[in-house]
Specification:
By secondary structure, the protein is mainly α. The chain is about 75% helix and about 5% strand. The chain has a three-stranded antiparallel sheet with strand order 1-3-2. The protein is globular and about 50 Å long. The protein starts with 11 loop residues before the first helix and ends with a helix.
């Protein structure tokens, strides 16, 4: 595949790799790719209509993020964790998310508040429609909007990395329309805490939100 560099300096190959990476992340976040599931390079080249090179580059990026792990015969699979590992990852994630909520509450602007509200509106719409994939995407946008509101791109990057790592597991908690509606309702409570501009309230609100999310996901996982 020929690499063409445009005025922005972004190569055609680079944009293709990003497209494949984003699509696979959407699949994982929506639960279309389950923990432990193997990804087939040949099938991916057919799906995306590309050679193996950009597919391998996209898989390498996801390996570096911990979303994928090495499998047998040089293959890759979606990461999966033991209960103890999940508890440890979520413990770290809780602290990071709580810090993001605290920082966001202190630094809210009209624009950042509007972006969070728009993301929540998309969550509510998807929940009412019972559209699980759409809700998963909107939920990611909701949390990204909070990260962005911290005004600290490094904190946002760290927080997003943990969301990537837990995507396959978190997807399990949404199995019905009622699950989506319940989740959207908890967002409203969280928004009230963040928009209060009280950093302690915002931090504790996020802790409770993440704790409840982990418990629901763990219970759903145990029932499978």
């Amino acid at each position: 595949m020929t690499s063409v560099v445009g005025k922005s300096g972004v190569t055609e190959r680079g944009s293709t790799v990003q497209r494949i990476e984003a699509a696979l992340m959407d699949d994982i976040a929506a639960g279309n790719l389950a923990p432990g599931e193997r990804l087939d390079e040949v099938r991916l080249t057919v799906r995306f209509g590309v050679s193996r090179t950009p597919v391998r580059e996209a898989l390498s990026r996801l390996l570096a993020q911990g979303v994928l792990v090495p499998g047998e015969k040089r293959g890759v699979r979606v990461a999966e964790y033991s209960r103890e590992q999940l508890a440890q990852v979520f413990e770290a994630m809780h602290e990071i998310e709580a810090t993001c909520a605290r920082m966001a509450s202190q630094r809210l602007t009209l624009l950042s508040r509007a972006e969070i509200e728009v993301a929540q509106g998309a969550c509510v719409a998807a929940a009412k429609a019972g559209d699980i994939p759409a809700y998963m995407r909107a939920n990611e946008d909701f949390h990204r909007a909070i990260y962005k509101a911290t005004g600290n791109p490094y904190m946002a990057e760290i927080a997003q990395d943990f969301r990537y790592r837990t995507s396959p597991f978190r997807a399990k908690k949404f199995a019905s329309k009622q699950d989506l509606l319940d989740s959207a309702d908890t967002h409203e409570e969280l928004l009230a805490d963040i928009f209060s501009e009280d950093s302690n309230t915002a931090s504790e609100g996020m802790r409770q939100h993440m704790r409840a999310s982990f418990i629901r996901a763990l219970a759903r996982s145990d029932s499978e």
